[in-house]
Amino acid sequence: MNYRIAGLHHITAIATSVQRNYEFYTKLLGLRLVKKTVNMDDPGAYHLYYGNKTGDPGTILSILPWENIGPGYEGTGMATEISFSVPPGSLEAWKERLQQFNPRTGDKNEGFGEEVLHCSDPDGLKFNLVVPGREDARQGWHGGEVPEAMAVKGLHSISLMVQDTAQTAQILTGIFGYTLAQRKGNKSRFVTDAAMDANIIDLVEMPDGPIGYVAGGTVHHVSFRVNSDEALTIFRGRLLSQGLSITPKTDVTYFSSFYFREPGGALFELASDKPGLTVDETVEELGSQLKLPARLEYMRNRLEGILPPLSR
Predict the structure, then answer these.
(1) What is the CATH topology of the domain spanning 8-306?
(2) Looking at the chain, which runs of residues are DSSP E strands?
(3) Is the pTM of this model over 0.90?
(4) How do residues 286-305 score in pLDDT, each as one tens digit?
(5) Were 51 and a residue from 43, 60, 73, 244 both cysteine, which residue would form a disulfide, CB within 3.0 to 4.6 Å?
(6) CB atoms within 10 A of CB 22
(7) How far is residue 72's CA from residue 198's CA, in Å, rounded to a whole number?
(8) Dihedral angle, C-alpha 117, 120, 121, 125, nearest 10 °
């Protein structure tokens, strides 16, 4: 069987206030909170998932909110900009909407032939709204304050800042099956045809750039999707053959996954599509309750007492 990486599964970033983060991404950006759970390594903190109506892979931004964590800063060895896909003709309305939050919201410009609006969230996390160069047939969530004509459809791409493009590119092309599609200055775009959307990785080469620091307002890791646990095992073996240090495969309730640092320094995850975010909630209920893995259920009362309040 020809196992392939099917683009992005999700992207995880760090925030400094759960309430502020929730209000920005659900009310201003219009994403749906599709899962409210806890950080598996630090259960006293939330782990929030935002996405489309059903929380499909390729639409998900996940957030690790640690109250009052210090700020990070971008640099080499990390993912630096998240891009979301939005409908054609919506960027002017998005610019007006976002400028009400941040008057310094950037101007529209063009990147690799696509319309782009540069933005940032309350923690300074950089993100872009992009009108893709090809039709994005995904249905964006429009159950809140953002109308369907503007609704975010899902992830578009992620940018990594690296000191040496070749090292990271070898993983993308040699293991993941991406191809170099375009190069413009110090920026190289890699695309996979194994997915129709959320299938772009941009590498920005900064040979003398400072090393980044992952904390508040930065990306924690980039997760790529595969369709089965069997595919995870195959890719884990392929990556181990490259001499990379890889975590054991683990079950995190909604998918199985493992982590490794690619040669440029960014933290990558490979995650399975199934069982998905509806394994413990119906589509209608998504994000409405605090969901805990079975191993932490005995701590529910304690955790509910120490988790920061989150008003919806």
Answers:
(1) 2,3-Dihydroxybiphenyl 1,2-Dioxygenase; domain 1 (3.10.180)
(2) 8-15, 32-39, 42-51, 60-65, 78-85, 108-111, 114-120, 126-131, 154-162, 179-184, 187-191, 200-205, 219-226, 250-251, 255-261, 267-275
(3) yes
(4) 999 999 999 999 999 999 99
(5) 60
(6) 22
(7) 25
(8) 130
